[in-house]
Specification:
Chain B: This is Branched-chain amino acid ABC transporter permease. The complex is a heterodimer of chains A (341) and B (306). By secondary structure, chain A is mostly helical. Helices cover 72% and strands 1% of the residues of chain A. The longest helix of chain B has 28 residues. In chain B, α1 runs parallel beside α6, α1 packs antiparallel against α11 and α2 packs antiparallel against α4. Chain B is built from 12 helices and 2 strands, in the order αααααββααααααα. The chains are: A mainly alpha (341), B mainly alpha (306).
Chain lengths: 341, 306
Amino acid sequence: MTPSPHAARLVTPMMLALGVVLATVPLWITKIGLYPYLGVEILIWSIYALAYNLLLGTAGLPSFGHGAYFGVGAYAFGLTQLHVAPGLWVCLTGALLAGALAGLVVAAFISHRRGIYYAFMTIAFGQIFWFMAMKLRDLTGGEDGLLKIARPPVDLGIAAFDITDNVSLFYFVLAAFLVVVVGLWRLTHSPFGRVLSAIRQSETRAAHLGYHVRVYKMSVFTLSAALSGLAGGLFAMAQNSAFPDVMSLHHSGYVVMMVLVGGGLVSFWGPVVGVVVFLVARDVIGAVTNTWMLWFGLLFILVVLFRPEGIAGAWQAATKGVDLKRLRLRGSAALAQVLKV
Amino acid sequence: MFDLLPHIVNGLTLGLLFALIALGFMLIVGVMEQINLAHGSLFALGAYVAVVLLGPQPPLPPGLFEWWVGQGLGMRYALTLLIAPMIVGLVGAVVELALRRTYGKDPLYGLLLTFGVAMVIEEAIRSIWGTRDYSLPTPTTIAGGFIAGDLIWSTYRFYAAAVAAGVILLTWLFIEKTPYGAVIKAGAHDSEMVRALGFDLATLRTGVFVLGTMLAAFAGIIMAPIWGIRPHMGVDAVVPAFLVIVLGGVGSFWGAVVAGLMVGLVVGLTGAYASEWSLLSMYLLLVAVVTVRSRGLFGKKSILEA
């Protein structure tokens, strides 16, 4: 990501605009033939995709088993609610911490690896978590999943809001989304974020500059896993259940596809664009044909082959008058950096 | 000890099958340094094509249809083992054309692309054949079981293991003992030189990829009666395949075979005492080995380390 004029700001005009637009979503989403719950889903997956892109887009670390941390968060939310305390904040903290812990353990095993071995190990660990979710039936409910997870009221100390209906849940998740966005924006534009970009460009060079690459790689993985866990917790709450499905290789693949198709390599907002396109396509094309994933898969192949700057990149070119050719070079360069071509 | 013997035998037969599944994957990784995540989907596609060929209504022109249905099941099965991989091989050729842009780049690039390809093939399978399970008709001579040492053994598993061992050996002979194999290996090490000697490198790579694809499809047909045929079988195959490769050491033929046998043994033995956890055991094995030996059991330094 190149420096932006808004880099140092806590809240950018883009965030404000997005916040305002998103806040009006429940007013018109049913009028265009969709439903409020889709909005909830888009926001939750956006948190997940932004967390994932911190790893892929900023630090250039390819994880193909990231569903594990999303799933760990989902189960942690449910288990905290069922066995520890029913409060919303406790459960969400549980999801965040469980994601962080799972991420930290895995990061300790893999952070001295690079490239394809790094990718391989993330898949292996992702599968391990998936199997555990399937087999630890007493804890997770196995294939049936963890059911009857409630949506506890949002207790702010002075007042409490009920979020059992999808519109109020939407506003709560929107608040969480905006908090994560501000946090991640600050982080990627901080010195820490700069070091991550340096690692993406060349691990060896970053190491020679005196940075403890392994520590940075572990930190960013843990952080990304923690936020994925938070998204998973919100998802379990929204769905009223947690399933092993979200930890499968397929689901882990979806987030990779969303981020790349959206343009996560050249844009902070790319992952959000990818999530919207993916989920709306799922519902709209899915209503017409059962094979929508086939078409999305083809789109993904074409993006990787010819348009690594993704949809967000094309948008930047159209609106800001950025030369598409230069942008494409930037997209290819970013993909090349991630893939260490 | 004697109680353990059946599990060891079962584990080793399973291990040969894991090695067979990994064989085509290994060929493409070893020679082209491409990670083909679509390997599992091509594996599944092989099984589905075999189901169509061996089913009651294969889509063939009238004359051929009568002749084909007139053959005994044994004959049709044997021919299917040859024909289905060839059909899937054509799909492999198309995938290779798409992959050409990634040559000379990091294998992660190919991994991303073939992930998309896997998704597309799996969805295509779902839309053509639906999500229900299929079974593959097998000749009676290799179905059923026999009794030895007070135990009932599945004949099919032994047949499958023997075929797997045979194909592994044939592939090794092809790579190591024929002039074609020599050119393929040379192409992997020094593409400039091979091109300078007048070999068509593009065709060579397509050939290797198609051969790897055919091995995947073949493995799919062999595994079908054991695993059953369903859209998800591709993922069930591709993950053990890469696991076997990483465990054995990327680029090592016999490393992969040994790793396949090890994975089979571990899965077989865990299956005997904690059947629930048998599939988890292979991942733990991988993590344990790779934590100690980062290049796997017999791995050499390769570009995959980036």
